[in-house]
Design brief:
- The complex is a heterodimer of chains A (about 425) and B (about 140).
- With about 425 residues, chain A is an alpha/beta fold.
- The N terminus of chain A is likely disordered.
- Helix content of chain A is about 40%, strand content about 15%.
- Chain B has about 140 residues and is α+β, with helices and mostly antiparallel strands.
- Chain B contains six helices and three strands, in the order ααβββαααα.
- A three-stranded antiparallel β-sheet of chain B has the order 1-2-3.
- In chain B, helix 1 crosses helix 3, helix 2 crosses helix 3 and helix 3 packs parallel to helix 6.
- Chain B starts with a helix and ends with a helix.
- The chains are: A alpha/beta (about 425), B alpha+beta (about 140).
- The interface between A and B is medium-sized, with 17 and 16 residues.
Chain lengths: ~425, ~140
Amino acid sequence: MNSVNNDIIQSIPFDVDKIRAQFPILNIQVNNKPLVYLDNGASTQKPNSVIETTNFYYSNQYSNIHRGVHKLSQIGTDLYEKTRLNFQHFINATTPSEIIFTKGTTHGINTIAYTYGRKYLQKGDEILISGMEHHSNIVPWQIVCEIYGAILKVVPIEQNGTISLEKFKTLLSPKTKLVAMTYISNSLGTINPIKEIIDLSHQNGSHILVDAAQAIHHLPIDVQELDCDFLVFSGHKMYGPTGTGILYGKEALLDALPPFEGGGDMIKEVRFDKTTFNDLPFKFEAGTPNIAGIIGLNAALDFIKEIGLPQIMAHDKQLLDYCHQQLGEIDGIRFFGTSQEKAGVVSFLINEIHPYDIGVILDNLGIAIRTGHHCTQPVMDFYNIPGTCRASFGIYNTMEEIDVLTNGLKRAVKMLS
Amino acid sequence: MKTIDEIQNEIIGDFEMYSDWADKYEYIIDMGKELKPISGALKIEDNIIKGCQSRVWLIADYENGKLNFQADSDAIITKGLVGMLTKVLSGHSPKEIAESNLFFMEKIGLQEHLSPTRANGLLAMIKQMKTYGLAYMTKEKMI
């Protein structure tokens, strides 16, 4: 096994062992080998604080929230609303009304696509996305474009997995109602110049939605400074529970949009002749929400804040550089997504070996990576490949795990060639 | 001609000598390498079984009361598994194929390859092979 460069270890900005000790799943064995979890782009593991908060809530505090006069309902409501305030401050939203709880990024995008479509889209209008979007930021727009006769335009990606601002500008037109763009590509790791994209969209008179699913736990996000109109992300990719997410929207815009789903918390008064809707943020929170999940998500956010985003970013960058360096030594490896501005995602293929085969061999070695198209089929079509192998990093990953991955890949290549 | 169950038991026997996962996979990969590829001309949309990750091609031929299968995949491990499945089911009557109980994958500890999450097209391939069996059974009755 190659020895890890000691200089790199010493410069890691926090004690990874202490972080790892907070994640019980990292102690398990998979196929009789210690788990090496490198599938964080798909979902991250959960620290004790999140597990315990959720467990404690179900064991000691649980009931339905809002509109209840009894003690438990008040406790639950307070905890739930505390999460909203925590996120308001974390992304610097103007008011808590701008923080809508969702099931996740996909739900957030669908909420905007359907309601924005109903309010603003007309025949011949254009929605502009990029060629590196996750299917969740493509399909909802395809559906609403079809409903309202609008046209979906796509900024192509360049060979290195970036998008050209020049090409983006040429695709903005007077008909572009809304731009929907990812901050960080989930399959390539590219960090897009989102501030420039937001400003150019606004100069063109277009609204913009930012998919921050891969960015929220990597980059500091200040929605007022960015000036984006909508921003969406998931809880489960930021060490929080599944089925949770946030939709941020500027208050005036969210106010102007019609509700998405009907029922539960989103109503003010229901009459058979006329129903009125609740104020923000509840207008977009129909039905009993994932209360325990949202309360657990607060613990996840506290966990991230305690470590600090600059430290997380530095750790991510070190893992990324070390991974590129180590994997780069494997004969026949090709990397996809080689932008200078890149988050902790390494997408690759080795010779003509199918990514599925590599994934199976690594699984037998206890190494979890993702193989396939990563819900970005247009990206794979662009490179004319069936899919890639993708290693994506989390806060608990170590340089030693990258060594295990490198050796595992060498073994896989030997077996499969 | 051996029965479907006899062939399955033979494969299980072959695997008994492998205690290590790597040996098992070496065997499967070798099967994949040895399997005659389907020619490009036959790798058409009609013959493809789409997994999410690996693709499988399957062709069935009916001759003298027996169904013969040819299969291929773009992933070598899937190809090896596909080769094992055709070895088990090829050359039997449509009725035997339609009514077969495939137990060897579980016995040799490879049942995870039949999990829907693997999305490798194998599960759909087995279903397709049995559907061919049923279709030719019906056809035989009509003749």
